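Subject: two folds for Thursday's group meeting

Dear M.,

Sorry for the delay on this. The cluster queue was jammed most of the week, so I only got both jobs back this morning. I'm pasting them in the order they finished. Each block is the input sequence followed by the predicted structure tokens. Could you check whether the formatting survives your parser before we put anything on slides? The first protein is the one we discussed after the seminar.
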Amino acid sequence: MQALFGTRTAADINLIAQLLLLAGLLTGFILARRKRFAQHANMQTAMVLLNLALIALFMVPSFYGYVIAGQSVSGPVAQLMIGHGGLGIIVEVIALYLVLLMRTKLIPRQFRLGNIKLAMRTTLALWAVLVLLGIGIYAERYLVQSTAASAPLLEFRQLGADLYVHAVELADAQTRGSLPATKRHAEHLINLIEGAQDPRYGDIDGNGHLEDPGDGIGLLARLDAVAAVGGGPGATEQAATVRDQLDRIVTLALDLIGGQQVQELTPLAEEILTLARQSNVDGVFAIESAARDAGVVQAPSLEVAAQNTGEPLSVTIHEDRYQFIPSQLTIPVGTTVIWVNDEQAKHTASADDGGFDSGDQELSVRYSYTFTEPGTYRYFCRYHGDVGGVGMAGTVIVE
């Protein structure tokens, strides 16, 4: 049925059917309370046999595809499915036993229950639990679309370390009495903090060379990106403190570049070193660690596969926690996307329109595809998602 309707539609049908089955069983219970035992027997028998059909048509294929074929034993959906499957087998076997007991004489006397009323009520209660588990599976798989927030954690941490390194080098140059070197390292700090988008970015010390030990984006921009996605309310306040420290470093560095006597720059150099140490250790490092603790993952970055051979840019999407990380990616035309499976469960990266398909990816297996045309490309995992953004699914936007 999943092949016929798709996993989401099949799940919709099964969920509605299970709710109707429970309503039918409750109706049968009411009939028994009113002493209408023949109608009660007919209703309960019909519901139990209908459930057998639903198990064969919907539940077994769904369980097989997600848990067995997809090798999934962790995660809320897989765990709920395993619990639902185990309890479901027990309840269905007991229900069939009760039907045979009510309607036939196939059960030997020594295997007949003494308190059949208690058995029926217990089975009904367990059936209600099964339906609740089914609702939980449906909600986790189709309604709760969990995504892992991503941020440039590695770049942020590296820029924080570079900030401190160049503050140390600035202080050392000032101590040695080298005014050109002191000003050069002041330029390094300003460009590293502000990034190329700042109007002051450039050859600030006027030595004929634009020098930036950073990535051109700037520590401030990286700070905003990381603080925006993780770490809780405290991270926002911490980020504001770090921003003030970085702004102060820029102001001091500009004053230092304007100085004429290297001996007079000692207070500026010392304050820059103190602020750089504080903003790195107590700021950048702490914010990055808090973001990781909150579940933020490293954002992918475009990398030149072979700088001078004409090969395309590449970017990696990680398959982890039954998600594509990141689930949405914007790239330029000609970029190669690499999907790598980082967990034990088996995954695929399969285009909604069939344009590409990784096939089965076991742990650490990589698959790459180069996007040569602009457009929006949606894809999914055949075991844990479906077309249309259901479950484990993602989007690549090519511009």
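Second protein, same layout:
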Amino acid sequence: MRQHERIEVRPRTPGRTRRRGTFLAGLAVASLLVSACAGGGATTAPAGSAAATPSGAASQPATGSYPNRTINFVVPFNAGGPTDTVTRLIAEPMGKTLGQQIVVQNVGGAGGTLGAGQVATAAKDGYTVLMHHIGMSTAPALYKDLPFKPLEDFRTIGLVTDVPMTIVGKKDLPPGDLKALIDYVKANKDTLTYAHAGPGAASHLCGLLFMQAVGVKVTEVPYTGTGPAMTDLVGGQVDFMCDQTTNTTGQIKDGAIKGYAVTTKERNAALPDLPTAAEGGLPNFEVTVWHGLYVPKDTPDEVVQKLNAALKAALKDQNVVTKFAELGTAPVPEDQVTPEAHTERLRSQLELWKPILEASGATAP
């Protein structure tokens, strides 16, 4: 599997165009509302106001010509996964607003920390932008030698979307519903395999919560992203996983995999026949995955403002709204598309996950 893949997304402006392994982890809580404590709360910054700078990062002089060349969006997971899908959907309208070509680059590996680390040390000029999800807030507790500090080494641009998770299995997995799956997992814990995108990835966290709630531990199979994990699930090489609706909705509808539950309080409009986890026998099992854009610390205020304005415009783009809905998600409310709201979400999630992961004993290799 290639770790790097570059795909160009051009604006419409004229002239511009497995490894196998066993991770034994148990959580100290019976269930966890991941999206709680992640609720933003900051108000929308007025147009032209200075963007929030995490941990006091200094600003450089304004760069009035920005952008005047190609912008690189780094996705720290392989192509084809949910974060990659979200990024590609917003890249085109953002490029149109900015008047420049956006290149989406996949840098998979180490649960998203490899790509994030590259962006942390990139030039502070706005031409290297990171799209990351909840994994940004779990990495410090999982990786002993993490090469970056989420709050200190990045500036936030704004939140993008909160994506529900789904519990899914290979199409010929015997259980017909979630209750039957729970019983099946308990009875076959020594032979079943659970796929995820690596330590700290959303699919890993959801799996930890599922195994804790069920009360058993199964063999985990980590990948460099849920794209290749999904490929193996469809092919029957692994038994089940937990992944975002942006990566599972089409596969469930096509019958390529078996859907067992959605991890939100209410059923998902894109998958109306799929029960909630609570309906299937896992009370209070709720998991959503938030995404946001980052640039290296000390990136100038003007650059942050322009990227934020382009993100706001992209999240109002009708194609983005429609495609998000088809994938079972939606743009976050506008008051969350700000550096301030994004920074607060990141800070609160760092505080939330640190004690939980330390208590679970889960660590990255």
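Two things I noticed about the second structure. The longest helix spans residues 339-360. The chain has ten helices and ten strands.

Cheers,
T.
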